[in-house]
Amino acid sequence: MAFFQSVLFFGMGVFLLALDWRGLKRGSLPFGSKAFLQTLTYERDRDAVRFWIAFATYLVVGVGMIVYALMLSVSAAVPLPVSR
Fold first, then answer.
1. pLDDT, tens digit (0-9, with 9 covering 90-100), for 53-83
2. Buried/exposed 15-53: b ≥16 CB within 10 Å, e otherwise
């Protein structure tokens, strides 16, 4: 189960970093959702503070997930409990 969690967290971390990189290049980051109506998007030109907060959030969480996945893969971290 630790291997599956490691792969899952690594994939999610890489996805968040890729989303962060794309947002940095395009100048807009999707962040959350507004029900089923539309996606909440922060643009660097209009919402600079919110854009950089979202950027930092994605960056920290993405790197944290990758580090946790690598720690799981070498058995340096305890896997999340799975109930049956």
1. 999 999 999 999 999 999 999 989 888 888 7
2. ebbebbeebeeeebbebeeeeeeeeebbebeebeebbee
